[in-house]
Design a protein that fits this description.
Elements (H helix, E strand, L loop, with lengths): L1 E6 L10 H6 L9 H9 L5 E6 L7 H6 L2 E5 L5 H13 L3 E5 L1 H5 L2 H6 L3 E3 L3 H13 L5 E3 L26 E4 L2 E2 L10 H5 L4 E2 L2 H13 L5 E4 L8 H17 L5 E6 L7 H9 L2 E9 L3 H6 L10 H11 L2 E8 L8 H12 L3 E6 L7 H8 L26 H15 L2 H13 L15 H17 L3 H14 L4 H9 L1 H22 L6 H4 L6
Parallel strand pairs: 1-2, 1-3, 3-4, 4-5, 5-6, 7-10, 10-11, 11-12, 12-13, 13-14
Antiparallel strand pairs: 8-9
Helix pairs in contact: 9-10, 10-11, 14-16, 16-21, 17-19, 17-20, 18-19
Amino acid sequence: MRVLLLHPLFPKSFWSFDKALELIGRKVSLPPLSLITVAAILPQTWEFRLVDRNVNYESEADWYWAELVIISGMIVQKEDMLYLIAAAKQRGKRVAVGGPYATSVPEPIVAAGADFLVLDEGEVTLPLLVTALAQGKPSGIFRAQGEKPDVTTTPIPRFDLLNLKAYSDMSVQFSRGCPYQCEFCDIIVLYGRKPRTKTPAQLLAELQTLYDLGWRRSIFVVDDNFIGNKRNVKLLLRELAPWMAERGYPLSFSTEASIDLAQDQELLDLMIAANFTAVFLGIETPDTDSLSLTQKFQNTRNSLVESVQTINRAGLRVMAGFIIGFDGEKSGAGDRIIDFVEATAIPQALFSMLQALPNTALSQRLQREGRLLETSNEANIHQTTLINFIPTRPMEEIAYEYVRCFWELYEPNRYLARVYRHFINMKPQPHKRKFKLPETADLQALLLICWRQGLKRNTRWQFWQQLFSIMQHNPGVFKHYLTNCAHLEHFIDYRQIVRYEIETQLVNSGAIAPRIPELAVQSST
């Protein structure tokens, strides 16, 4: 069987980092881990071609070659997924579709003409697809019927199918599922509340595969809550640290975790020992009432500010997610988020309006209350998507708070000041990597950052003052500090997009009258 694996386009987003990636000659932040895992689960006698459309497009020769097309993606990739299904059917190809979007909302996938829906987790349902193809069945819908696979049997992803030079980071997965019950989250719907983990030997084998392929950059552990099973993650870290030391710390790691990481010093120490450098925290809001209402109780037990500071001082860069639009939320929520971000000096604060994602407890509650809008199946967590339900305060008020918050957080001087405050107090990594000459692209990126931020813009005095202060007082964090300065190139451009698209949607919906000066996209230079 000749299989064409297609990864749909992502829209430009908070995480796309287009302008920053251009500086280092990379095209995309992360690879399609789902599809290279699918390729590993399917029979290895089959032939595979992978096309990540965020890197380059498939050719007519690829279409001609394929006997089966497999597409996987998330809700935010819906538009390109449906396009690819139609393109495959126009060429007479059999199409199998899976992943989070198809699992959550299969109806549009069926309507688009997909032959096979491979839903839920592939370890269970991909063998059903193989059997159906062997039996000559023309179509089918395969579900796990509540079965959660034992991920200790999951094979090493086919990293060899990737063009490694196209990505700034690689991805691996250690666990699936989260023990918490946040009302708005679809992770517990898709993967359950009992975290299932791979074995330490399994993950080390995946890392060894990447190492053997020549990867020497950062790796994002894509678990939705890396510390959901603390016992098992500690077992992994105790084996990962000596593996890294034996090889001279060739990799660095980042991941997502719940805020209670701050209350486990042993876990923090183990992550630092294994060369973890950053963690994404779902803070959502500093408003305790909203956290309790949405059942994110783990964020109410300790001071959020102190927790962030504890994690940061330990040596981990903190990224965080925030949401505006919770029920009962009082006016000024955007200002309170700004105050929190400034108090904790979190450089990268992901900010979006609340969305009722399909099948979540939130969407079910809003459906019962008659507040879910007809666009509910289009829900996603993209930063330019309006709330898809009737909120408890005016939509336009929430939207303008959101836009203003995003705009202010990524004002260049304000952003660079947070980056400086975050890194000046951070404990540097204790590991010394083997010396390696910097790549030409990295040197060019450094020069461009110095030119744009240190000479061309009005950030010039601030840039040099902070850079020399870091070099003098905390030189161990210099590389990561400069990387986060480079991210400003993306945010300058992206905050314009957020403001324009949100205000345009409000105008088109009739919520506000056109205000041309505010809708104009300014130059990002």
